[in-house]
Amino acid sequence: MSPRRVALVTGASSGIGLRAAVALARDGVRVFAGMRDVSRAADLIDAATQAKVTVEPVAIDVRDEAAVREVVARLERDAGRLDVVVNSAGVLWSGFAEDTSADELREQFETNFFGVANVCRAVIPGMRSRWYGRILNVSSLGGRVASPMFSGYDASKFAVEGYSEALRHELRAAGVFVSLIEPGMVPTRMVRHAWRRSDASADPQGPNAAATARLERLFQVGAGWSHQTTSADAVARVIARAASARTPRLRYVVGLDAYATLWMSRAAPQAWELWNAWLARPETR
Ligand SMILES: NC(=O)c1ccc[n+]([C@@H]2O[C@H](COP(=O)([O-])OP(=O)(O)OC[C@H]3O[C@@H](n4cnc5c(N)ncnc54)[C@H](OP(=O)(O)O)[C@@H]3O)[C@@H](O)[C@H]2O)c1
Description:
Elements lengths: L5 E5 L4 H12 L3 E6 L6 H9 L5 E4 L5 H15 L4 E4 L5 E2 L7 H29 L2 E6 L12 H21 L4 E8 L5 H6 L1 E2 L11 H21 L2 H13 L6 E4 L1 H12 L1 H11 L6
Parallel strand pairs: 1-2, 1-4, 2-3, 4-6, 5-8, 6-7, 7-9
Helix pairs in contact: 1-2, 1-8, 3-4, 4-5, 9-10
The chain binds NADP nicotinamide-adenine-dinucleotide phosphate (NAP).
NADP nicotinamide-adenine-dinucleotide phosphate binds next to helix 1, helix 4 and helix 6.
């Protein structure tokens, strides 16, 4: 009998990471559920209990490279292996590009891009040595098609896309598959209330105040509607499927809205551009 597979899921205190941890455990995988503060594991433990599975919370802040290395080494020592890694930790910043400071942009990248890279670097040597691994990076449709007001977030996800694609080429011959999960809008904490505005975009006298308000309203409508399109559970099921696939694909688009956006932006690029320009238009004086 082959040994039970072992997974690390980052950002498992809520949303997609939480549901992915439970879905993998349901598939018989031993799951270490990473989160910054393990005292916030109550929702995860409840969901696992309801699903009649166990998951093991571990403290991990993906921005801290040394801590990530230390945690991964400890898990590999304790469990003997890490076969599957789901990089779900992420943050969402909004604000027009000119209203986003370098520090705000860096903060966005620290979690969404460097966090993913920190975890990948830490787990690759072990996966290489065992000739087996599955790395699933939760990107976004925003990593394929960018939107006004989300230049920082989309840039961080485009970076994850390029990084993951190159990594896939580097690791495939070693039996390690890297995949990208690309959901559309999912009704999680992030889109409901945890997204962060750049400071300057909150200025009502700023040049983009009207356009920002318009785009925020549209975003909130989208967040409200997202209940109808894609659930965190649906994304988690795709993650679990990719984790157990013999040959996982490079990309998994999830959600009707994601497919529709991808299709429209590719099939009618000029119309798509005009639509976005209209949404981001300045208020006429
Ligand atoms: N919701 C969407 O519409 C959507 C769409 C496409 C892609 N995504 C992507 O899906 C992933 C999960 O997001 P979600 O929608 O599930 O949102 P969420 O419920 O807000 O989950 C984000 C998770 O990331 C964790 N996190 C944030 N910074 C961290 C750090 N430095 N180290 C470790 N963990 C950290 C949060 O944990 P704390 O408790 O520590 O804050 C939380 O568990 C993100 O990468 C996001 O970009 C989301």
